[in-house]
Design brief:
- The protein is α+β, with helices and mostly antiparallel strands and about 160 residues long.
- It is built from six helices and six strands; from the N terminus they run H-H-H-E-E-H-E-E-H-E-E-H.
Length: about 160
């Protein structure tokens, strides 16, 4: 493939989506390797951007292993129900400090839950930051953080 014949971003991302649904892919390096096998050479930074844009998440796959998967959500009205389900299954603790909430999850579930929180499109949420088992939610105000905490506590049941 000549440099001018590089496939489009949309095509590359379509291949990545198909790949994570059909293969056990646990790292971005594995994605790059599969793409290279199809003649598509990209940097790790490009793969990272693609993973973020496609909203892929690494989910636990048993015995300390993880794999990339899509996080499909249909209609906007399903988002709250999806979040409630994930909260009941995977959230272990909630805490608040002024403008921030800290949500502790089972190992490997924080990223997927943060994605669903982002889908709520609350103006009060400035942003989220995740690790493997923690979500930091930054709110615009202390009052807004308290309201979010109360709503999230309700999701736990």
């Amino acid at each position: 493939m000549m440099l001018g014949d590089m496939p489009s971003k949309e095509y590359r991302q379509h291949l990545i989506e198909e790949l994570v649904e059909s293969e056990f892919i646990s790292t971005q390096a594995e994605i790059a390797k599969h793409l290279a096998g199809q003649g598509i050479r990209v940097t790790q930074a490009t793969i990272s951007r693609d993973v973020n844009e496609l909203r892929l998440v690494r989910l636990p796959a048993g015995v300390g292993r993880h794999r990339y998967r899509s996080t499909p959500l249909s209609a906007q009205e399903d988002v709250r129900g999806e979040l409630a389900q994930r909260f009941k299954l995977f959230v272990r603790d909630l805490d608040r400090g002024e403008h921030t909430l800290v949500i502790n999850t089972d190992e490997g579930y924080a990223e997927g839950i943060a994605y669903v929180i982002g889908r709520l499109e609350y103006d009060e949420i400035v942003g989220t930051l995740t690790s493997q088992n923690t979500i930091l939610v930054v709110a615009r105000s202390a009052r807004g953080a308290q309201a979010l905490l109360e709503e999230f506590e309700d999701l736990l049941g």
